[in-house]
Design brief:
heterodimer, A: 107 residues, 3-stranded antiparallel beta sheet, globular, B: 119 residues
Chain lengths: 107, 119
């Protein structure tokens, strides 16, 4: 139940791209294709953005994409928009492990 | 429309107890695993507990094992979290969340209820 490691912050100007990493071990991120990503605006319910490493739920813009290499998963937000400013969390192990969280700032 | 609405949060003294509820609607509650996840002030999301769709299998984070109990009432479409021997470090917003039906993870969240443990 150790937390997955994410950078505390990331930023970009509108229209630019930002990539967030999520590092675990072969027992979680590296061992299974069940990494998911959540967007969390303070005071609101977290929202699923990516599941099974690369899949987008219906309604999530294709500006959001996911990937994985070894024990590290990544979330890329392309064409940054003001409403993308939020906290982002990765998750693995069936939802029982979360990343430390990354605050994305749109400059 | 899927909805998860938590209730039962509030101020409780250290050592006290509290029961959280999560009312589910918009989906067949009995078919889904359910989770509780919490977020302490200024901190990240931390998984707390989960229960399978039958209510027969539960898991807990080490930090709450032996103090918290998750349960469900499928007739009332409600998830519960009974919290005993509460500590200051249990202070957090508690989120109810639904386990995805066709992949391993959480696909929907409630808006949370705040639990404050303080004297």
């Amino acid at each position: 139940q150790s937390a997955l490691t994410q950078p505390p912050s990331a930023s970009g100007s509108p229209g630019q791209s930002v990539t967030i990493s999520c590092t675990g071990t072969s027992s979680d991120v590296g061992g299974y294709n069940s990494v998911s990503w959540y967007q969390h605006h303070p005071g609101k319910a977290p929202k699923l953005m990516i599941y099974e490493v690369t899949k987008r739920p219906s309604g999530v813009p294709d500006r959001f994409s996911g990937s994985k290499s070894g024990n590290t998963a990544s979330l890329t937000v392309s064409g940054l928009q003001a409403e993308d400013e939020a906290d982002y969390y990765c998750s693995s192990n069936g939802g029982t492990s979360f990343g430390t969280g990354t605050k994305v700032t749109v400059l | 429309e899927v909805q998860l609405v938590e209730s039962g949060g509030g101020l409780v003294q250290p050592g006290g107890s509290l029961r959280l509820s999560c009312a589910a609607s918009g989906f067949t509650f009995s078919n889904y695993w359910m989770h509780w996840v919490r977020q302490a002030p200024g901190k990240g999301l931390v998984w707390v507990s989960r229960v399978n769709s039958e209510g027969s299998h539960t898991n807990y984070a080490d930090s709450v094992k032996g103090r918290f109990t998750i349960s469900r009432d499928d007739a009332k479409n409600t998830l519960f979290l009974d919290m005993n021997s509460l500590r200051a470090e249990d202070t957090a917003v508690y989120y109810c969340a639904r386990g995805a039906s066709d992949w391993s993870g959480i696909d929907f969240w409630g808006q949370g209820t705040l639990v404050t443990v303080s004297s």
